[in-house]
Amino acid sequence: MMIKAYRCDLPVNKDILEKYPGIQVVDSSLLFGLEHIMLAIEKAEYAFESGCNTSANIFVEVLLWASAQRQIKHALEMYGLNGSQDVVVFGAEIPPGFSDAHGMREVEIVLDESRINVLKCAFSITDAELGVVPGRVADALRELICERISLGAVQ
């Protein structure tokens, strides 16, 4: 599966999904990096293979895993497109010319202090939890979010 992060010149809304049913476009503000969505894709694919999927749609299943939620509504609130300018696009293939047609340029997701604070809130991660995991705060946050995603399988 191809995965790319983009910064868009103009806000992107969910109508883009209707034009390109073979891809998913999500707001990237609550992703710690491309690894976040890669783990969610892996978990969603396994859920489909084992018959444990919550959604009939693989893209929605990915959002459930990325959000560490089991409610589709909550996952869509976290990653839905609401005038987003920072997005991640994934699918079997990203259509040629897609990024140019929508004024997108490929970027790297940076886990800076601002994003760390937003992610801590979104995933209910406390400073006490971060303090228990050795290493840099950014690395600890990644580890704790991955743990929450993985625990989604036992909820």
Q: What is the helix fraction of residues, given as a range?
A: 40-55%
- Number of helical stretches of at least 4 residues: 8
Determine the CATH superfamily of the domain at 2-109.
CGI121/TPRKB
CATH fold label of the domain at 2-109: PF0523-like
Question: Compute the gyration radius: what is it?
Answer: 15 Å
Low-confidence stretches: none
Task: Please provide a written account of the structure.
The chain has 155 residues and is of the alpha+beta class. It has a domain at 2-109: PF0523-like, CATH 3.30.2380. The chain has helices spanning 15-19, 34-50, 58-67, 72-79, 98-101, 113-122, 127-132, 137-151; strands at 2-13, 23-27, 82-91, 104-106. The protein has a four-stranded antiparallel sheet. Helix 2 (34-50) runs parallel beside helix 8 and helix 3 crosses helix 4. 27% of the residues are buried.
Q: Which key features would you list for this structure?
A:
single chain; 155 residues; alpha+beta; PF0523-like; 4-stranded antiparallel sheet; 8 helices; 4 strands; 48% helix
Write the layout of secondary structure elements.
Blueprint: E1 2-13, H1 15-19, E2 23-27, H2 34-50, H3 58-67, H4 72-79, E3 82-91, H5 98-101, E4 104-106, H6 113-122, H7 127-132, H8 137-151
Antiparallel strand pairs: 1-3, 1-4, 2-3
